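Q: What would this chain look like folded?
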Amino acid sequence: MAVKIVTDSASDLPKALVQALDIEVFPILVYVDGTEYKDSVTLHPDALYSYMKQGSEVKTAQIPLNYFVERFTDFAHTPENHYIYLAFSSNLSGTYQTAELAYDAVLEEYPDFRMTIVDTKCVSLGLGVIVYEAARLAQEGASYNEIMAYVDHAIRHMRHVFSVDDLEYLFRGGRVSSSQAFIGNILNIKPILHVVDGFLVPLDKAKGKKRLLSKMFQYISSYGKRLDIQTIGIAHTLNEEDAMMVKAHFETVYGTQHFIINQLGCAIGAHCGPGMITIFFMDEVL
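A: My prediction, written as structure tokens:
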């Protein structure tokens, strides 16, 4: 039975990789001043960040139930495939739960439809790297059990560390208070966050870019294992300069050769704004 990998647009994978590995990507909804868009389909990141700089009201919404039902029904017409849907963290979105409801509904009509829906508890390229590796294994002919063994391990050991340039966007999303955002921006203090069990959790803070990257690199040094053989994820919002600095650090310090570097898509970027830098790596490799 062939394995087909499915995910949502919160995975932030470059389109070239999605196409090369035949990954199905479901778009999360984004609203700009009340107008509905599909992440990276009818609204692309550069346009979103331009709207945000202009002060537009930006919101996101999970993928609708009827969209899942329609696509899962399409999948059910090829019962020779076993689908694995790797979903955005359920602690940050209801997408995973909606996918489960849709699968149960489609099973009633197509009892032979086989899909495994996985709550990865990951965000952006933390999810994207897992999707990439799973799809690569599928393309190489790995079995369902082999792919799921990798996925289960990667979910437990994927690390996220990131920061934002302007605290105003985290304030709008309810992640910091208005006073924290104001004082932080005035003093050039940047928060450093990570992901714990699918939740965004404050980790540290730093004043200025140099100190910020130094602290992020310390975190990677403390927890990263075999960084030379991993695929490292680096995502940013209009911040390619820092992304390239991070890449150079991995190459110089660890001899890393494999990277996925991309601009954050609209689903995640809508809550973080321009200037964000994020790094994804494993604290244990198989």
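The longest strand covers residues 199-207.
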